[in-house]
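re: ur msg from earlier - yeah i can do the citrulline complex, just paste it... oh wait u already did. ok heres what im feeding in:
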Amino acid sequence: MIASSPDAPLMGASSEVGRLCTVLLHRPGPELRRLTPRNNDQLLFDGVPWVDRAQEEHDAFAQALADRGVEVLHLDRLLAEVLSFPSARAELIAAAVDDPRLGATLQRSTTTHLSGMDPEQLAGTLIAGLAHDELRGGRGLAYEVMERGDFVVPPLPNLLFTRDSSVWVGDQVAVTSLAMPARHRESTITAAVYAHHPRFAGVNQLYGAHLEHLEGGDVLLLAEGVVAVGVGERTTPGGAERLARRLFARRLAHTVLVVPIAQQRATMHLDTIATMVDVDAMVMYPAVADSLVAWTVTAPDGSPDLPADDADVTELAVAGPQPFLTAAASAMGIDRLRVIDTGLDPVTAEREQWDDGNNTLALAPRLAVAYERNTVTNAALEAAGIEVVRIAGSELGSGRGGPRCMSCPVARDPL
Ligand SMILES: NC(=O)NCCC[C@H](N)C(=O)O
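and the outut:
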């Protein structure tokens, strides 16, 4: 039986750079072995990774965090633990078969199959998926018509990128609403873990998987009370607006900067082009540094008591657009937000942006984890006084995500 620890540290985060205390990771497993040249595009990978090496790289990432005093939580273990609770099992099995491809008969036989599993097996199957030929006792028209290699329950190879399916703001957690069909089910897992695991007992959920699309990679906590939200391929303006209302209603932020980003794979999230490495510094793709703009959203004047989360009648105050760097510095109350460039020349910058050179994970002010391959960006970071913890990512990077994407901070010290 699992129990919450009375010694568990306080949870929550109010910045990108406060000392990282606890982080949620997911070690890639059998779900990555499902990737083939036929399905990798649909499953949002740019290739077919060498899984053993990806696991070694991830283990080294987790170790680098642990070596610096960070408590590492593993999503698959938390999931297996909550699957000992009947309500969590029922929720997650229902989510796994909630797929219009299946039809009622196959949904029933899949539910029966999954219900017979112990928590460990069920956690493994919810993540790695269930192929047609692994389903004993499958029935129904859809089952007959499917090919042997088809998935009754598709795998979740992008669970590796724990950043996107939940994000903490203050002491609350936003379970997000992922835009791409290949990732929808991920947030049913994070929602169940936060709702049922004793470790998170009493934590308020700030957002939900059924709401407008919002992904954690688009949410940057620039400073206490100041949240930047990228809108583009993944997060919609509607998602940014809903999050802003909720942050204001719960007094978790006073300003939300809404930042349009190009709707393309290379810039799928705001954290693919910029991340914080110090209280007043970001590493940023230089090609966007001058053109990036922000709309500044604040709670309406004279509303000290915003009534409830979704008081949709409340008009938010919206100003802009302004250059992002100007709007951010002003909201953060600093003279200037310093920018460290990814790359040196435009071609190197483009290559290192693609390889997640901007996607750093700060462990504390001026201490960040980065992929070793981005040598020019890392040298620029060091020249600017940032200590860089280098990790290998040749295989992990084939999913197009770096150290920030692969981590969800659960607790950071306040600055
Ligand atoms: N925050 C991030 O940029 N996460 C990386 C997500 C990569 C994943 N293959 C995706 O396309 O969603």
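cool cool. Residues 44, 158, 161, 163-164, 180, 183, 217, 268-269, 271-272, 399-401, 405 surround citrulline (CB under 6 Å). ping me if u need the other ligands too
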